[in-house]
Amino acid sequence: MSRNEGEQQEPVVVRDRRRIDPETGERRTPAPNGDEAQVAESMSGTLDEEFGQADEPAEQPVDGASPEQGGESTGLQKQVDELTADLKRVTAEYANYRKRVERDRESVIAAAKASVAGDLLTVLDDLERAEAHGDLNGAFKAVADKLIGTLNSSGLEAFGAEGDEFDPSVHEAVQHTTSSEVSGPTVTTVMRRGYRFGERVLRPAMVAVTDYEADGETASEAGAGQSGESTEQE
Fold first, then answer.
1. Pairing between strand 205-212 and 171-179?
2. 44: in domain
3. What is the pLDDT of residues 157-179, one digit of tens each?
4. Which of 33, 54, 152, 160 could form a disulfide with 194 if both were Cys (CB 3.0 to 4.6 A apart)?
5. One MF term in GO for this entry (predicted)?
6. In 3D, which of 39, 21, 22, 38 has the Cα closest to residue 30?
């Protein structure tokens, strides 16, 4: 028996690969036959063994950012916070600097005005004496009134009048008398008016001061009353 006769004849398989069903006329979806499925499976296994299965994707953070991106974001936020703190500190320092400059500027202006007013005090004394003697009249008086009004509007203020309570911080006593008509140290005569500019005293007022002291008759009555009281007690 020959070799061809000894081998079993493979059955003949007829496959209908037509895409249109001749009986229904509908389109058919071709399905892979057993050989094709086997070949595809074998090829898939071969590829898996040769190249290995595909690597699974690395887990990503929940927020969608990688760990490197998260660390970089934290560093940037820290820098933003530091720069914001520096900006606030610089803004506060600049505000304090502006206040200090404005305060110094006002102080310099006030000192300059006070210096000019202080230089004019002798002129004001002359005008006051001229008015006391009746020589301040006409155009001379008009000019004097304008000068005094300008100085007063700038902050110059005169003080010192008869009847004021004596204050050693603003009064300069050059005469001292006693009287029973006053209840305490009182200014009775103003020899030179004092001036202040704002809270600064440019010149104290030169005055005469009178202290309280009982007169002779009152003192005698007081002494007699005390003698009578002592006699009754005896």
1. parallel
2. no
3. 999 999 999 999 999 999 999 98
4. 160
5. unfolded protein binding
6. 21
Q: Rounded to an integer, what distance in angstroms lies between the CA atom of residue 231 and that of residue 234?
A: 5
| Tokens standing for residue 208 | 């005469």
pLDDT surpasses 70 at 3:
no
> Which of the 8 DSSP states describes residue 88?
H
Q: How far apart are CA 44 and CA 47, in angstroms?
A: 5
Contact between residue 206 and residue 188 where contact means Cβ atoms under 8 Å apart: no
Domain end residue (candidates: 154, 172, 197): 154
Structure tokens at 8: 């079993």
Measured at the CA of 129, the angle between CA 124 and CA 131, to 5 degrees, comes to 95
Task: Identify whether 163 is part of a domain.
Answer: yes
Q: What are phi and psi of 91, to 5 degrees?
A: -65, -40
Q: What is the pTM of this model?
A: 0.52
One-letter amino acid of 169: S
Q: How many CB atoms lie within 10 A of CB 195?
A: 24
Q: How many distinct structural domains can be found in the chain?
A: 2
Which CATH number does the domain housing residue 171 bear? Answer: 2.30.22.10
Radius of gyration of the chain (CA): 59
Task: Provide CB contacts within 8 A for 190, sequence distance 6+.
Answer: 160, 161, 162, 205, 206, 207
Structural domain boundaries, residue 168: 156-216
